[in-house]
Each structure stands twice: as structure tokens, then as C-alpha cells.
Amino acid sequence: MAFIDLNSDVGESFGNWTMGDDAAIFRSVSSANIACGFHAGDPSTIARTCRDAVAAGISIGAHVGYRDLAGFGRRFLDCSPTELADDVLYQLGALEGIARAAGGRISYVKPHGALYNTIVTHQEQAQAVVDAVKAFGGDLPMLLLPGSVALAAAEAAGLRGVAEAFADRAYNPDGTLVSRREPGAVLHDEDVVAANMVRLATEGTIVARDGSTIKTSAESICLHGDTAGAVSMAAAVRRELEAAGVDIRSFV
Questions:
Q1: I need a labelling partner for 193 at 20 to 30 A (CA). Which of 46, 185, 214, 221 fits?
Q2: Which family would the database say this protein is a member of (predicted)?
Q3: What whole-number percentage of the chain has pLDDT above 70?
Q4: Residue 22: is its pLDDT beyond 80?
């Protein structure tokens, strides 16, 4: 039977500001990308999310990002490789401590937002992130965009690079994500999204926004927890994948 991982960005609430419905998303996904406090998340939110992930039997991933709470980590920061590596290492250490207290552990790393998109092509920052993960130890897998320089850097460092696809995001014909600044970047039609992800899991293709077909291989599908209708969409994607004979399980 074919299988694929479903991951979601969670633990992104901060203080009195609530983002997403993590408990509901956990009914559909197999991996949780937990914010580490730099782009979102406060200690109590992170701790609660770790406890809920452990209780649900879901893999915990470190969702590391730029130090940009005001911009939700969606703005490029022109920091030095050393500063970026230190920031990533700091986030990994913080989440690992909280995860262990909850009875779990970090089992992979996924960069967030602008950092994720930057290291598709930015060699220095990609290497900085990989260096931080390597320095942290444990040879944690890294969840990254197919064809990115970060994926190549991770594999060159002896880390497992795990390619992912995005269920609720539109794609450019070259396989990159349509910028959130452009209209139509986020998809909301459950039927279209679910059909596209079934196609990905069974045929290895995704339909780009211009109608062209992109060949890709992904071990994991991201379902953003902060997208409107995220819970319903996640359930629909899981339901249609399982109906097509695709098993949902973590890649770790």
C-alpha cells in the first residue's frame, strides 16, 4: 500500500492571540510542525501543543523561523549565516526541552515561512540552517521543498532530506510556491485540493496555477493550520487519500 505523511504548522498562538485549532487538526495529520517561539508561539502554547501531540501519537517537528514575531516569520531577514545558525540552534534547544518534558522529542526539522522560501535558492542561509541542525545532533531529517538548495545541502551534510508538497498553496510552473502577496496563492476549494493531493500521492504530479503539470515526488503533504477552513480541508484530504488506498503515516 502507498503511504504519505500529513504535516501541519501548529503551536502558533501567542498570549491572548489564538491561531488555528491544533487539537482538531491532530485528528487528521501524522506530523506536527511546532513553532519554537521566534515567529510564533509562547512557552505555554508550545508545551500544551507538545503534550497534545504526544497524546495523539503524532511526530514532533521543530518549526524554526526568522526572529520575527511581528511579521509572523513571513519577512526575509538579511542576517549573517552565523546569526541565523545560532537562532536556529536556540529554537531547537528550546523545543527539545519542552518536548522531553511532555514525554516526546524532536524527530525532524521544518523551516517556516520566509526562511523556508529563502533557502530554496539562498545558498548561505541554507547552509547556515543545515549547519545548525547538524550541530544540534541526532541527524534530524529536514522537511524541505523539492529541488531546493537546502535539500541538497542537507543531503550533502549526511542528513535525510524529506521533500514535501503543499495542499493549500498554489504552485508556479517551475515548482515553487506562488507568493502569498499574489491573489490565489492560498487554495480554499476542498475538492480541488484533495484531488490534487491524491494525484500527487498516486501519480507523482501536481497541477500548477497555469494548468501545467509538475512532476514531483513528496514524502509529506503540508496542511496549514492557520488557513481558513483548515480543519475541514485536512479531514477532506485525509479522507480522499485513504479512499484512494493511500495510508497516512509519519515519515519518521
A1: 46
A2: Belongs to the LamB/PxpA family.
A3: 100
A4: yes
Matching residue, cell 545548525: 132
C-alpha cell at 125: 542561509
Q: Which residue has the cell 514531483?
A: 216
Is the distance from CB of 153 to CB of 122 less than 8 angstroms? no
Q: Is the dihedral of CA 172, 221, 200, 229 positive or negative?
A: negative
All three cell numbers of 131: 549547519
Q: What is the DSSP letter of 14?
A: B
CB 29 within 8 A of CB 222: no
Distance CA 193, CA 199 (A): 10
For cell 506536527, name the residue.
32
Beta strand residue intervals within 49-166, DSSP E: 59-63, 106-109, 142-144, 161-166
Measure the CA–CA gap between 14 and 134, rounded to whole angstroms: 29
**Percent of the chain scored above 90 by pLDDT?**
92
Strand partners, 129: none
Contact predicate 142/154, CB 8 Å? yes
Distance CA(135)–CA(47), nearest Å, equals 24
Residue 17: all three cell numbers together: 492571540
Instruction: Give me the half-sphere count of Cα atoms (radius 13 Å) on the Cβ side of residue 128.
Output: 25
pLDDT digits (tens, 9 = 90+) for 192-220: 999 999 999 999 999 999 999 999 889 99
Which tens digit of pLDDT belongs to each residue from 128-160? 999 999 999 999 999 999 999 999 999 999 999
Answer yes or no: are the C-beta atoms of 36 and 252 closer than 8 Å. no
C-beta of residue 34 within 8 angstroms of C-beta of residue 11? yes
pTM over 0.85: yes
